[in-house]
Amino acid sequence: MQPFVPASWVRDRDVAVVDVREPWEYDSIGHLPGAVNVPFDAFRSDEGEAGKLPPRGEWEALLSEAGIGSDAEIVAYDDTQGVFAARFVVTALLLGHDPGRLHVLDGDFSSWQREYGTTTDPVDPTPAEYESDPDAETPLVDFETVRDLLPAVDAGDVTLVDTREEWEFEEGHLPGAVQLDWRELVDEGTRGLRPENELRALLTDRGIVPEKRAVLYCNTARRVSHTYLVLRQLGYGTVDLYEGSLTEWRERGGELVGNE
Fold this sequence. Notes:
The protein is an alpha/beta fold. 34% of the residues lie in helices and 13% in strands.
């Protein structure tokens, strides 16, 4: 799995490019040549499959209208260092798209502009037929699974990772969790991932190591999506996503520790 791909990789391949920014940004500021616009709010839902995942039928219609087929190789981008694009990619993965055909532009729209051209020309995609795979194996875990894993977290056998900011973590987090703000994984200058050696050192310092199962959460599963893809990029084996995240955990009376 190669979740993050450089601009040169995107330029040289025939892939479905998805811009998840707001329509006004896509239309007025410009976009990558051939990119279709699928705004972030279009694939977020409070009444979907789980957490913020959209209903499967709506997702299939959305991608079909965007001209994206079931077997398409997809590259998503935003202008926010990849966190919104990562959510699009993880949404596709959790709804059954082949993970080996899902990528995020390493960097974002601003970093692309430094090297390559953009356009404001409209893109009118030919509708495709997209079918998700409800039987696909995914890294999704639910409330009960996370709750039942807490003894293993306490024993040091599982790493529970909170990808929110430090102040959020201090206000309340799941028992035994370690804090890793997803923004620590990106370089402010390049707007893409930090060098691999720096990423590995940072993760090891927090106790997030490849040989140990990791379970990730944030508030609404947006930030956690980026961290999930980084760990997969680095070859981490068992990485699970708690889609419901802290929102569901609170609603269902899960134990919290911190300053609450």
